[in-house]
Amino acid sequence: MSNKTITIDDIEVPFEEGQTIMDAALAAEIYIPHLCHKPGLSPHGSCKLCTVDVDGRAVSACTLPAAEGQRIDNNTPALNEVRKTITQMLFIEGNHLCPSCEKSGDCTLQAMAYHLGMLDGHFPQFYPQRELDASHPTLVLDRDRCILCELCVRASREYDGKDVFAISGRNTNRQLIVNSATGRLADSDIETDDMAAHICPVGAILIKDHGYEIPIGRRTFDLHSVAESDLGEIKLSNVRHHDE
Amino acid sequence: MSKLRVGTTSLAGCFGCHMSFLDMDERIVGLLEHIEFTRSPINDIKHCEPCDIGLIEGGLCNADNVHVLQEFRENCKILIAVGACAINGGVPAMRNHFTLKQCLEEAFIDGIGVDNPHIPNDVEIPLLLSKVHPIHEVVKVDYYLPGCPPPADAFVKILTDLLEGREPSLPNEMLHYD
Ligand code: SF4
Ligand code: SF4
Ligand code: FES
């Protein structure tokens, strides 16, 4: 056991050399909000939900290595307000009409919004027009709800040993693309059992025909807050196996 | 003490929020000791009068919605956006994927089982907006009651809070978008 420590909201937290602030926090069961981070995959640092204050500077907890003596503010009203604004932007930049989404109740973005007490999107809606890919026999890719977290990109590369997804384009034109001759999911290497098919935190990559097996109201985040679910009790719960 | 005056309306919504409001069952009797309805589909009064609280269900899909919303804003001290459609457009905003022309042609010309295909153009019919919008894009909204629909308990909570002079709030587990 290492005797190096950082301090998160006045709690002393031990860490090992090479761990990020997020790694140390998760090991100590301290919740730092995050959407694009999943233990086991390389950190990406894109969603900025994990923004914390380290000795007065705003940094991403999922990418910054823990270092002896860091004093970190995490669960403060000011940071949670910033996180809420980020979450509102994620909502209005896509088409997040939860009542018509089969991920509702199992969606980490939605659960984050609940956790942060988000009531509205605040900003004018973009209502972007994005392409839906329903070509695959068992999977559907609904880009309207993609938050560009790259979890599927990394899961495919680092875990499945494939390279099915990538992000292309800039600014508001950024979108998830599929690595196949036609650009369609049906012609890619993805298989239903791949981690990439199950890791999407939102309703952008869905398994067909299983969306309503668990009724709305009895789903993961109907019963648990995003904070507890990420603290080990029902870990990876939003990665639901298609035949479960 | 005089009663709080409450107006309600459904714009581009499905009346589900109003149904959910009525789901408070007999609790409405107690509530009516303290509130009275002005314009509302519940009493079928169709003109706006100055009131304390306006509950708006539904987003904006046509010119009449915008007109009614502005009238409510002018007449209500407190305006509450009720339900997913008022807050972000909701299910009606799914048409924003398509042009208005595509929507009208699908509904009135190319749709399955359409008889006598033509796009209705009676002057009485309010003109559709090219996109559906949430209400806070047009008027200032004071409070939000999310849900599709918000449960009856949420209506009771927000009205009780306002009646008792508290800043309205919802317990975390009552916050839902579905
Ligand atoms: S992906 Fe999540 S936030 Fe988006 S519509 Fe579906 S449930 Fe709502
Ligand atoms: S499809 Fe899902 S996992 Fe992939 S980038 Fe979009 S939101 Fe993230
Ligand atoms: S979790 Fe750190 S930036 Fe997304």
Protein model, in words:
- The complex is a heterodimer of chains A (244) and B (178).
- Chain A contains six helices and ten strands, in the order ββαβββααββαβββαα.
- Chain A has 244 residues and is of the alpha+beta class.
- Chain A has a domain at 102-223: Alpha-Beta Plaits (2-Layer Sandwich), CATH 3.30.70.
- In chain A, the strands form three sheets. A five-stranded mixed beta sheet of chain A has the order 2-1-5-3-4, with helices on one face. A three-stranded antiparallel beta sheet of chain A has the order 6-7-10, with no helix packed on it.
- The longest helix of chain A is centred in the middle third of the chain and has 17 residues, at 77-93.
- In chain B, the strands form two sheets. Chain B has a five-stranded parallel beta sheet, sandwiched between helices. A two-stranded antiparallel ribbon of chain B has the order 4-6.
- Chain B has 178 residues and is α/β, with parallel strands linked by helices.
- The mean pLDDT of chain B is 94.
- Chain B is built from six helices and seven strands, in the order βααβββαβααββα.
- Classes of the chains: A alpha+beta (244), B alpha/beta (178).
- Chain A binds chain B through residues 91-92, 95-101, 104-105, 110, 113-114, 117, 119-122, 124-125, 127, 129, 216, 222, 225, and chain B through 81, 84, 87-91, 93-94, 96-97, 131, 133-134, 136-137, 141, 144, 146, 148, 172, 175-178.
- Bound molecules: iron/sulfur cluster (2 copies) and FE2/S2 (inorganic) cluster.
- FE2/S2 (inorganic) cluster is lined by residues 34-37, 45-50, 60, 62 of chain A.
